[in-house]
Amino acid sequence: MDSIISISALSKTYASGFTALKGVDLDIRRGEIFALLGPNGAGKTTLISVVCGLVNATAGSVRVDGNDIVRDYRAARAQIGLVPQELTTEAFETVWNTVCFSRGLFGKPPDPAYLERLLKALSLWSRKDSRMLTLSGGMKRRVLIAKALSHEPKVLFLDEPTAGVDVELRRDMWQLVRRLRDEGVTVILTTHYIEEAEEMADRIGVIAKGELILVEDKAVLMDKLGGKQLTLQLVVPITEIPPALDRYGLTLGKGGSTLVYRYETGRNGESGDSAIAGLLQDLAGAGIACADLHTTQRSLEDIFVSLVNEPALAGENGSEARAAAEGAR
Amino acid sequence: MNWHAVRAIYLFEMARTKRTLLQSVLAPVITTTLYFVVFGSAIGARIPEVEGVSYGAFIVPGLIMLNLLTQSVSNASFGIFFPKFSRTIYEILSAPVSHFEIVLSFVGAAATKAVILSVIILATATLFVPLRIEHPVWMIGFLLLTAVSFSLLGFILGIWADNFEKLQLVPLLIITPLTFLGGSFYSIDMLPAAWRTVSLFNPVVYLVSGFRWSFYGSGDVPVGVSLAMTLLFLTVFVALATWMLRTGYRLKP
Ligand SMILES: Nc1ncnc2c1ncn2[C@@H]1O[C@H](COP(=O)(O)OP(=O)(O)O)[C@@H](O)[C@H]1O
Ligand SMILES: [Mg+2]
After folding, report:
1. Which of A54, A69, A176, A284 has the smallest count of CB within 10 Å of its CB?
2. Would the pTM count as exceeding 0.90?
3. Domain A3-79+154-223, CATH homologous superfamily name and number
4. Domain count along chain B
């Protein structure tokens, strides 16, 4: 596996004595979009801060494209762009100057043409001579993104990029992230919104109380725990499921008027479909008529609920998963 | 060396100076002019020559030193305190920049500004009193070394201070009194013997003395001692700043 960031046994105990990271191991693959998902206070910002050099690790090591973040800090940091969680900007600087500053800071020679394209892509070009203090919150966030991308990094960290952001910016941001990925940039974003991770990420890591409790391809995660469910609306309510239908593992809804059938998708999709055909035949055979039926894809949110109910799936950290799921909701 | 970064930070700091040009240049010039009017002309006329020069001329090196010290400390401390305060420092800390490059650019900018101001004050002084500079190379040497040393002190102060009060209190309560008592306006030979001994514990005495020596060829202490002390301050402040950056003191949790 070609990993661009390798984190091993990373721990952080703050001066207050609080341990924010407990031996985190994580490999980020080159070119992927990785979502770090976890409730507030889980340690997401701390993890990013250590990788970017803003917080000293207590133990463990991090390599960025093979460069140790302490010993080869120059090579490591030159590849990273960071968009922090907080909106921190130099109030009196103009957009253009602050972006030029960032590029220089990361050791790159001036390239006005590149920065112009960048500002245009972020709808900032018309505001390039505005001072930061005259910009709205959303615009400031765009500037922070421009600053992070000003030196053409290979890795982009977005710490809670869509917290408090309007719909338009959120859409622009996702477009940008996908485009960056297409250009080969690795994107790591943190969020406590499951939908965000689900929509954007190739892989998802779940962090809670400083521990990484699950790292999985989103597709595999959906596959493993996901699947679809078919809900059948019955014409006449029933009190119990006929024994002839036992093999489908159906659940009877409240009042006996719905039947729910769970089945796997993905690689087993076809077998699921053929099972449905069989189910419908058997239902007819048992004299049960359906008024309506619909299928739903289980979302990550449902998956978290599964993690809670089936701790075995999350390994021995089931209780942590439950906390994560609850926090994340 | 990441020269692009050094240049970026240096120019950024200088641009900040330019934005506040009026207050940062006008204020010291006006204050100094007032000193000349009050001490040089009004009172100085009644004071006999000190060490062979008129009182008005005698206080020029001390006045420049006074400005150089306060300006170096306040420029540099504000320069690093502000990004720390506004949290924009995250960008510098996450950049491929060495500790030396950070110090070079911040301290370089603060020292540049302090030196420019000193030159302006020197030029203003020539309007009031006849000046002579017997050892111009030493004069420039002391000017630059002191500017760099005390900009380093300001840098240290800016990292240490966690609020605006502390940032302003240290120059007000320590730097200014030490400078006033450091022989800016008198020769410590004029003091009673006991106070002369006490004065020797004031580091600013050595700075002012050496600087005055480069103007008029005489000082309170031998010029070699002044130079040694200046280099000692530089060394101590370099060590302290290096330690702060290396450990991440008040910059990295
Ligand atoms: N400088 C600090 N000193 C002490 N505790 C801190 C510091 N920064 C963060 N923490 C604590 O570490 C935990 C993780 O914080 P953080 O990494 O910001 O979480 P997240 O980004 O997942 O919300 C929180 O409980 C927070 O209070
Ligand atoms: Mg956070």
Report:
1. A284
2. no
3. P-loop containing nucleotide triphosphate hydrolases (3.40.50.300)
4. 1
